[in-house]
Amino acid sequence: MTSTFAAAAVGIGLSLSAVTGAAQDCLEPVGRWPYGWSEDVAVDGTTAVLANGRALQILDVSDPANPVVVGEAVFPTLVEVAELANQKAYVGTSSELAILDLTDPAHPVTLGGLDGFQVVKMDHHGEHLYALSDHSLFAVDVSVPSVPSIVGQLEWPGVYPKDLSVSGGTGFVVVDGSMKVVDLSDPTAPTEVTELSFGVDREAGRLAVEGDKVYVAARGPDPFVSNLVVVDVSDPSQPTAIAEVGAPLGVADVDAHGNLVVMSSSYGVEVFDVSSPASPLWTGSAPIECLYSLVGVVAADGVAYVTCEVSGLSILDTTDPSSPTVIASVTAPGSVEDATLEDGLLLIAGDDSGLRLLDVSNPAQPVELGSTVALPQTFGVATLGEIAYVAGYHLVAIDVANPTAPVVLGSETGVNGNWVTVEGDRGYVVSTWGRTAAVVDLSSPPLPTALGTADLGPGWWEWPVVIGDHLIVRNTQNDTSVVVIDASDPTTPVQVASIDVWYFGGLASIGFWLLVPDIIDGVEPAIRIFDMRNPAVPVEVAPYHPVGGAVDAIGVAGSVAYLAVMDYPPQQAGAIEAVNFADPTAPVFMGLLPRSGWVKRFAFGADEIYVFGRATGFDVFSLCQGPIFADGFESGDASAWSGALP
Description:
Helix content is about 0%, strand content about 55%. The protein contains no helices and 57 strands. It has a five-stranded antiparallel β-sheet with strand order 1-6-5-4-3, with no helix packed on it. It is globular.
């Protein structure tokens, strides 16, 4: 762990510098859209920061009913936690800790940071930042923000601390079923003072400190019951639970301010009056639709700020605790479940955040045009002309001729799923939860009509590929397999073959060749290659072994396959590996480009590849036209070349 810091790209510009060694026409970064999941929110006075994918958005909340995004900083990986103090933002991503100067919120300036430091939770106190990472509490000296340094550490081997709050010279840390009290009077030697257990089979999740009281969200031993526990820490060496009151199940976060405690859960926001801490009273609640969970809450004077993983920030008026009310919101794109590209229009299925439509005619500057946020459960998307077919609870047809105002035309209620692909005038919908593959007639647009369904059996079915009149689907759970379904009679699709696989990564095809990421003999990453001219009898040829290691997603443009490899560089975020399968019996490695975050999907334009992370938006790269050479030369003068990468 070092104190050097790879500076984050700050500002709203989306252009990226080329990576050394990449040829000018192959996998060159073109642009990005860094927004995604909202993981955290922090507020200090009239300034708030929202973790939004790989972006930290800076908001002016002087009028909480009208929050205004005034600036942002973009990072290489997902922003997971943020803290504000003294016009500085402390930002924890999945790979670093960064310190930003927000003196001018519209133009944040990176001051310094720590590489290779993944923070779970943090709190600022005086000249120190206290952070939970791995199995430890770290004390970081931030008195000189340009050169922060770790000065103390308290380790709990085998334990995963969940939350942290610092008051005075004392830290309070939630660890499973208990709360640890830590003496921080000497930051260079943090020392555990005592531990308060909440009982057998209890699970404590989040905590907040206000004065000499700590408010802890705890669950169990009944897994369907959650409680708010009030702990008196007037003597930190002898913390005492003085009250416990029922709370909503699935508490995500808790914060306290004055006489109010605000809790977030999958159901919404709950408010408690703790003016008498020994007798906390539930006063009111506000429902907030959030498919996964409300993940963060900050309480302030008469206002609460709450984040939802997939839909952004909600701001509530809590001046009347009996009736908290949502007064404003800041929308985030949410997750990326699927995407497709049609004539410069990028369509993103974003789970609970709906279908989003972006103009990417200039890939360096994506512009969001419209959305169908009111449409829940958008897992898969495919297009046929100006109609988008979205898979979710039903298969929905949407007119996207005017992308600024997409129109829902109707749906096939008998078909549900989370993967959809279109081939000719047929749609194929795979349902992971229903364990089925449906064939749909699209010959009379706009409305789809179900023709027939095949039962896939137990498992988690993904990555539909169509070769001729056969549908091929991958099971990525338990006994993994790839199944081949004959849909030549679409009313009675039937399984005709299967391929045993060990690994879970994607599926793709080039012509009649099927590309199956796998691990051979349990150790050797490979792309297994099958001749599918007779789909009922797949014939395997020699595999291709990716340079970058195991593959978790695959996309194809022309004869080139783009592999999301996870082990290159070693123990880092991975890379995109390009391989030419023009002759699948002799694949040709074309090059590697480092990438950040787990890849969910690929989409392809005429000259660009769009690489999507589920929570981190997308990056745009130029498609490969030829080999990548180590020195970047592309002339016909081979004497100038130093050899292909790596």
